[in-house]
Write a structure and sequence with these properties.
Helix content is 83%, strand content 0%. By secondary structure, it is mainly alpha-helical. The protein has one domain. Helix 1 packs parallel to helix 9 and helix 5 packs antiparallel against helix 10. It is globular and about 60 Å long. The two termini are 32 Å apart. 40% of the residues are buried.
Length: 208
C-alpha cells in the first residue's frame, strides 16, 4: 500500500515532531524526573492511547468538526486547560514525602496513564495537526483513504513511543539521583507545576 520511501519519510518526520518541544513530551519529562522511569512510560502509553483516538477521529472525519466549529474547539481546549491547571495545583501542593509514599504505587501508574489520555484527548490541536499532517502521505490510488490514515496514525504512535520512551529513560535516570535530596524533590515539583500552568495558558490561548 505504501512505498518504503513514503514510510521512511513519514517515520522520520514523526520522530522529529516528537522531539520538538511540546506539551506531551514536556509532560513525560517532568513526570519521569519526579516519579521515575516507569511513571514516564505510564504517561507515554497514556498519551499514545489518546493518539489512537485522534487517529480514529481523523480517519472518520470527526476532527474536521474542531477545525470548522469555533465552539467545539474552544470547549475542548478549555477543558484541557482546566485539567492542566488541576495538575499544576497537585504539583504545587505536593511535598517530598507525598512523592515517596503516595505516588510510587501501582495505582499511581494507572492515574498517570489516565492523565496522559485526558491530556492528549482534550487538546483539539492534536486532531487538527493529524488532519493536516496524515493526509499528505495518503493517496487514493493506494486504496481506501481511511485505512491509510489509520496505518499512518499507528506508525506515528510507534515513533512517539520510541521518542517519549527515550525521554522517560533519560529524565528518569536523572530524577533518581536528584530525588535523593528532599529539597530537590520539592523544587522539581514546583517546576513541574510551573510547566503545567504554562501549558494551560498556551492551550487556552491557542487558535485554530
Amino acid at each position: 500500500m505504501f512505498t518504503i520511501e513514503t514510510l521512511l519519510t513519514f517515520f522520520t518526520a514523526s520522530v522529529l515532531l516528537g522531539l520538538a518541544p511540546g506539551p506531551d513530551n514536556l509532560f513525560v519529562l517532568t513526570q519521569s524526573a519526579i516519579r521515575g522511569q516507569s511513571a514516564g512510560f505510564a504517561v507515554t502509553f497514556g498519551l499514545c492511547t489518546g493518539l489512537i483516538g485522534h487517529s480514529l477521529a481523523v480517519s472518520f472525519g470527526v476532527a474536521a468538526i474542531f477545525q470548522t466549529s469555533a465552539v467545539a474547539f474552544s470547549l475542548l481546549k478549555y477543558i484541557g486547560a482546566t485539567y492542566l491547571i488541576y495538575l499544576a495545583w497537585l504539583s504545587f501542593r505536593a511535598c517530598a514525602e507525598d512523592i515517596v509514599t503516595k505516588e510510587n504505587g501501582e495505582l499511581s501508574r494507572w492515574k498517570l496513564y489516565r492523565r496522559g489520555i485526558i491530556m492528549n484527548i482534550t487538546n483539539p490541536k492534536v486532531s487538527i495537526f493529524f488532519l493536516a499532517f496524515l493526509p499528505q502521505f495518503a493517496d487514493p490510488i493506494r486504496g481506501p483513504i481511511w485505512i491509510q490514515l489509520l496505518l499512518l496514525g499507528g506508525l506515528f504512535i510507534v515513533a512517539t513511543i520510541l521518542v517519549f520512551g527515550s525521554i522517560a529513560l533519560l529524565a528518569g535516570s536523572l530524577g533518581q539521583w536528584l530525588n535523593k535530596f528532599p529539597r530537590t524533590q520539592t523544587v522539581i515539583n514546583k517546576l513541574a507545576g510551573t510547566v503545567f500552568l504554562g501549558l494551560a495558558l498556551k492551550l487556552a490561548t491557542a487558535e485554530r
